Amino acid sequence: MHDIKTWKHIFKLDPAKSLNDDDLRRICMSGTDAIMIGGTDNITENNISQLMHRINNYSIPLVLEISNVESVIPGFDLYFIPTVLNSSDVKYHNGMLLQALKTYGHLIDFSEVVFEGYVVLNPDCKVAKVTRANTNLTDEDIEAYAQMVNDMYRLPVMYVEYSGTYGETGMVKAAADMLTETQLFYGGGISTYEEAHAMATIADTIIVGNIIYEDMDKALKTVEIKETHK
Amino acid sequence: MHDIKTWKHIFKLDPAKSLNDDDLRRICMSGTDAIMIGGTDNITENNISQLMHRINNYSIPLVLEISNVESVIPGFDLYFIPTVLNSSDVKYHNGMLLQALKTYGHLIDFSEVVFEGYVVLNPDCKVAKVTRANTNLTDEDIEAYAQMVNDMYRLPVMYVEYSGTYGETGMVKAAADMLTETQLFYGGGISTYEEAHAMATIADTIIVGNIIYEDMDKALKTVEIKETHK
């Protein structure tokens, strides 16, 4: 069992985007704590499976973040399952989860499953649109969501997701201040070491994604926060 | 702290209905494990408060099941907060909870709070209509909800609610069979000792409500399941 509590940095790879073998090797050997495969568009069993097999050549922990029931495949170290707390559609609260449990419930090893309480904050991102998320939130909303996750649902992870844009550190801090048990993930728009450092000061774990496909050197540089945030 | 795990029998009182002092004394002295105040219609701070003060003359554990944010009042031993897992309206998943936490979050002692995962199964009951619950569920749905509550949300309580009608024991058993950690509450239509006994054989805790207002002797008789289900 992987202790995700110790993870400070995760690279998130989109199976719908291509990465050559050399770049994939650099990501896997970067010193990051884990690689998460996940995305919103064009996620298929086929492209997930291909990427999984390429990464399984390395010893890095590999996580699948499940975005639809159709593309759940075995072979990952862990499975992260999102529940989107600020979605206005019950499908993204527990509707997809219900279908997944009806289909795979008897096969699931729950010790490999981590349930993430998502709050999506960038109104322009794909995930906000798909889940019809109410992104117009105040600090008080974020505090209440954090309390909900930490004290009521007692989920292992709260994921503050600014997907595609760099977030407001004040909002992330509002969440962090309410969490005593739940681990705080921050994701969205991290493209420099400085941005990584700023969010790693507040969140327990930062997720670095898009910059991998834009500037590999800058992406790799973000792993250095592991030295300054031990 | 009350150990609700030991509770086999709960009387649920509706603050919108009247009960004379003698009947209230008989309920409080019946040997039931706790009294829960809750309802759907005409629940006000005033009628909850009055009933609470009358019951506080007895030593029985007293719980408020919160049905709206406006009628939360201090003075109870425990607060049960429902999340309706098969509601089609996010308000009854976590929407009301968000408002409650924004209003009262800083005041809440979470050691006094129990989060209940409700599945509402009687399509004709008020709570099903208010929450727009999808009550057309199969055994497989109930199993998936139970797994969701037990293994994903890890809620302390799953509440199978047939409000106003006696449920199908097969459905209740489908839930019970999936629960290893979560405590199973059954409520709905229990009006005889035999019905209480049948459900207490399957569920951890039975909730007896309406019959109190229809036939006090029969209601009190249901408490005898505590002798046969130790």
Describe the structure.
Two copies of one chain form a homodimer. In chain A, strand 6, helix 6 and strand 7 form a beta-alpha-beta unit. With 230 residues, chain A is α/β, with parallel strands linked by helices. The mean pLDDT of chain A is 95. The longest helix of chain A has 14 residues. The first copy, chain A, has a single domain, classed as Alpha-Beta Barrel (TIM Barrel). Helices cover 34% and strands 18% of the residues of chain A. The first copy, chain A, has nine helices and eight strands. An eight-stranded parallel beta barrel of chain A has the order 1-2-3-4-5-6-7-8, surrounded by four helices. The interface between A and B is medium-sized, with 29 and 29 residues.
The CATH architecture assignment of chain A turns out to be Alpha-Beta Barrel
CATH superfamily of chain A: FMN-linked oxidoreductases
CATH topology of chain A: TIM Barrel
- Note the main sheet of chain A: 8 strands, parallel, barrel
Radius of gyration of chain A: 16 Å
Strand order of the largest sheet of chain A: 1-2-3-4-5-6-7-8
EC number (chains A, B): 2.5.1.n9
GO molecular function (chains A, B): heptaprenylglyceryl phosphate synthase activity; magnesium ion binding
InterPro entries (chains A, B): GGGP/HepGP_synthase_I (IPR039074), GGGP/HepGP_synthase_sf (IPR038597), GGGP_HepGP_synthase (IPR008205)
Cofactor (chains A, B): Mg(2+)
